[in-house]
Design brief:
single chain; about 450 residues; alpha/beta; Rossmann fold; Dihydrodipicolinate Reductase, domain 2; Alpha-Beta Plaits; 3 domains; six-stranded parallel sheet; 14 helices; binds 1,4-dihydronicotinamide adenine dinucleotide; binds ligand LTNE7NMQ; binds sodium ion; amino-acid biosynthesis; NAD(P)-bd_dom_sf; NADP; homoserine dehydrogenase activity
């Protein structure tokens, strides 16, 4: 049978991995696809020493691939927003299917891209864009199709989890571990995307759209990174029975959808608390199936390539069976119709528990003043640790609260920070109990 011809754009970490997996496993892939999947052309800026591209047509210009009539599927692995958007739209305009690992592109321009693809009747597949090699998009879009999804929560940035794990286990400095994650090919070209939660917010935006059938709304996601989490917070969380993880959380509530990324205290016994290094895990709660968990490598050359090549297989199978994209881009049918208008909730309306760490002058009555402020905002305290003074006359106070509205907590924090006895901004980390095992 006629092969499916791939135009590979970008030969970096994921491009190189994709090239190698596709060529190494070509026979098995052809048997699964019902036809060979061959690399017709590669566009790259610099050669990847791990790839032997002898005999393959190459170019420095990615648009040559998008305009090449011998290419059936364009694989976009150059990353970034603008050139990638133009490249993908050009390929679609030319009737080519597209496979991409670019979550920034899908989260920000996905609505426009799917419209264009729908018009042309081509596939845009992006399994590698969320949680690397874990087939979470396929699971959510297809395997859980019978369910009303209640919530999705997970560790969806490998670099951030790698940093938190190695800082905690080896006491290493943030910058040192970040440099290692970059060398291993896990980080984005701008690593602040990983560290500040932007990459996780891109992925959460995509997961939420697929889970609830809402348009992609990255601009409404609340995003907070891990750069302010200290070794002290990690230790105090541990004393209280929690682990700090950087989570993406999206819940369906009566008021709308929560869409938030931030460091989170989770009970040590939860499965998510035990996901370490570059591994990702996403818990999904469906009304029929109950809690489910998807775990694996969230970044890296071949784990991510595994998802890219699986998407190529889907494309090949759809071409072979002459289907017109069997599964809708964001899981719900139609492109405008059937999209739910469930609102994304403002962060101030979120209800959750909180860990607070403050530094107070060691004088009688400070704790009572803090407790009064919390109580006046209707916030009750679940646990309290007051440590011996360690920093001159400043004494750390750790508080764990019961669930309360973010708006009340913001007001309480503002009032506590304005007390003369309190030094500097306090640390606030949200707490989730995440019943993913029940
Ligand atoms: N590294 C990882 O573990 C994962 C990355 N991704 C996504 O995959 C995409 C690629 O990421 P990486 O492979 O890590 O990046 P990378 O920086 O290793 O590779 C990108 C390659 O594209 C090339 N490139 C950029 N613009 C180009 C252009 N105009 N023409 C030709 N070549 C061009 C660069 O020279 C580079 O070799 C990104 O969208 C990223 O977010 C997704 C999941 C995991
Ligand atoms: N930089 C990302 C790569 C995969 O999406 C991460 O670290 O998770
Ligand atoms: Na994936």
């Amino acid at each position: 049978m006629k092969p499916v011809r791939v135009g590979l754009c970008g030969l970096g970490t994921v491009g190189g991995g994709t090239f190698n997996v596709l060529t190494r496993n070509a026979d098995d892939i052809a048997r699964r696809a019902g036809r060979p999947i061959v690399i017709e052309q590669v566009a790259y800026r610099s050669l990847n020493p791990d790839c032997d591209i002898t005999g393959i047509k190459t170019t420095q210009d990615v648009f040559e691939v998008a305009n090449n009539p011998d290419v059936d599927v364009l694989v976009e692995l150059i990353g970034g927003y603008d050139v990638a958007r133009e490249l993908v739209l050009t390929a679609i305009e030319n009737g080519k299917h597209v496979v991409t690992a670019n979550k920034a592109l899908i989260a920000v321009y996905g609505n426009e891209i799917f419209q264009a693809a729908h018009k042309k009747g081509v596939i845009v597949a992006f399994e590698a864009a969320v949680a690397g090699g874990i087939p979470v998009i396929k699971s959510l879009r297809e395997g859980l199709g019978a369910n009303r999804i209640e919530w999705v929560a997970g560790i969806i940035n490998g670099t951030g989890n790698y940093i938190l794990t190695h800082m905690r286990d080896e006491g290493r400095a943030f910058e040192d571990v970040l440099a290692e994650a970059q060398a291993l090919g896990y980080a984005e070209s701008d690593p602040t995307f990983d560290v500040e939660g932007i990459d996780a917010a891109h992925k959460l935006t995509i997961l939420a759209s697929i889970a609830y059938g809402v348009p992609l709304q990255f601009e409404k996601a609340y995003t907070e990174g891990i750069s302010r989490v200290t070794a002290e917070d990690v230790e105090q969380a541990d004393n209280l029975g929690y682990v700090i993880k950087h989570l993406g959380i999206s819940k369906r509530t009566e008021a709308g959808l929560e869409l938030r990324v931030h460091p989170t205290l989770i009970p040590k016994e939860r499965l998510l608390a035990n996901v370490h290094g570059v591994k990702n895990a996403i818990a999904v709660m469906g009304d029929a199936v109950g809690p489910t968990l998807y775990y694996g490598a969230g970044a890296g050359a071949e784990p991510t390539a595994s998802a890219v090549v699986a998407d190529l297989l889907d494309v090949a199978r759809d071409i072979t069976t002459a289907h017109h994209y069997r599964v809708p881009y964001l899981a719900f049918s139609g492109i405008d119709e059937d999209v739910s208008q469930l609102p994304i909730m403002p962060m101030e309306d979120i209800v959750t528990a909180y860990y607070l760490r403050l530094l107070a002058v060691d004088r009688p009555g400070v704790l009572a003043r803090v407790a009064t402020i919390l109580s006046e905002q209707g916030i009750s305290i679940e646990a309290l640790i007051q440590k011996e003074a360690t920093e001159g006359e400043l004494v750390p106070i750790i508080l764990l609260t019961h669930r309360t509205r973010e708006k009340q907590m913001n007001e309480a924090i503002r009032l506590i920070e304005s007390l003369a006895d309190i030094a500097g901004p306090l640390t606030r980390i949200r707490v989730e109990s995440l019943d993913e095992q029940e």
